Every structure is written in C-alpha cells, then in structure tokens.
Hints:
This protein is 70% helix and 9% strand. The chain is an alpha+beta fold. The strands form two sheets. It has a four-stranded mixed beta sheet. Strands 1-2 form a two-stranded antiparallel ribbon. Zinc ion (ZN) is lined by residues 226, 228-229, 231, 252, 254-255, 257. Zinc ion (ZN) binds at residues 226, 228-229, 231, 252, 254-255, 257.
Amino acid sequence: MDLRGRSELRKHRCGLTWRCVLKADPSRQWRLLDLQAIDTRLDQIAHARANLPQVAAIAAARSELAAVDTELVNARTAVGDVQRELTKSEQDVQLVRDRAARDQARLDSGQGSAKDLAALQHELVSLARRQSELEDIEIEVMERAETLTKRVAELERTRTEVADRLASLEQEHATVLADLEAEAQQVGSGRSDIVAGVGEELIGLYEKIRAQSGGIAAAELRQRRCGGCRLELNNVDFDRIRRAAEDEVIRCEECRRIMIRTGESGL
Ligand SMILES: [Zn+2]
C-alpha cells in the first residue's frame, strides 16, 4: 500500500483551471477524523492551560501580599518610634518624681531657712503640676503605642490569611496544570501512530488547512452539510461528491476544509 498518498491533476468544475486532487484510501481519510478529534482536544487543553483562572487570582494575591508587607513594615517602624517616645516620656516623668522626692526629703528634714523651705514648697507645687502634665503625655503616648501595636497584629493576621490563600491557589494551579498535562499526554499518546497511518501528503494538507482555518482541517460530511463550516452543500457540489471516487480527498467549496464521507453523509 502506498502510504504517501497519491495526487492527480483534474479540471476544476468551472472547466477553466486545473486543480490538484489528492487521493487517499477511505480508511486513511477516516483516521483524519480521529486525528482532528485529538488535535481539537489538545488545542482545548492548551487554551485552558493559557487561561487558567488561578493565574489571575495568584497575581492578585501576590500584589495584595506585597501591599500588606509594605504596610506592615511601616506599622512596625511606627511601633518602634512610639516605643522610643514612650521610654523618653517615662524618663521625663521619673526625673520630676525623683526631684520631688528629693525636695520632699529636704523639706521633711526641716533643715534650712524658712525662706529655703518656702521655696521648696513652692517648687513641689510646680513639680506636681509638671508631673501631672507629663503623665498626661505619657498616657497619650501609651494609647498611641497600643493602637499601633494592635494595627501590627491585625496586619500580621491579614498577611497570614493572604499568604495561606496564595499558597492554596498556587497548589490548586499546580494540580490543575498537572492534570491538564497528564490529559494532554494521554490524549496525544496515539497521535504519532495516526499521523503515520494517514500518510505524509494528506497530513501536509491537513496541517496547512488547520493553520489557516482555526484549528479545524477535517470534518465529517454529515447529512449534506460540511462539519467544518456547517453549510449545506448545493446540488451541483453534492452530485460531484456523490460521483467522486471513494479515495478522492474531498474539499468543501465554502471553507476549503477536508470533508470526510461516512455512512452519515446522506450520499
Ligand atoms: Zn465547509
């Protein structure tokens, strides 16, 4: 058997031009339908791989994580700053307390002139006022420190949530990808045998049409309709196909795809 297919020149139906007509045994033409089914599924898998919804979701989660990280760095810096401010504020209060304690001790000892003691009492009053002011500041700083610390904890929780979500999306993506790859392997496993069985010349034509016609090169002629463009054949074309030898490779006059005749063609 000649596996490379045969072709011959024949007058076009218009009678003016010659057209190359490819010949191939019907069994080899039918195998083209198997090949087309495989290639269509492989195209669908490739399309699915390129458009997995997880890809966009992963990109969104990554940018969300980056934003949370930036906010977290800022919030931790702010906590560090406010803690230094708090230490300073506590030291300020302590200085005034120490000074007041020393003054009180001197006053309690009763040593010194009445004028000195009066001055000490006066200073104690002003130190008490100062201490109260500084303690108010300390409380305000403590409140700010508490708010900022809570914000850091909140951001840390958000970061964990986003990181977990990202990890599970990546896992999901890897699983779906692996499934699609496994399916592509399985679907494509018999392809080379079919290609060999169809023959070089017919495969060449099939690949050329596939590249030009959105991936569909061969389709069944079913109930007088081309399975590629779905158009119904006119009587002239239908008659010509009915009379054509069974090993002639038939092309649709509308979409130029290879039409495969089967028992369902209505011939
Ligand atoms: Zn067609």
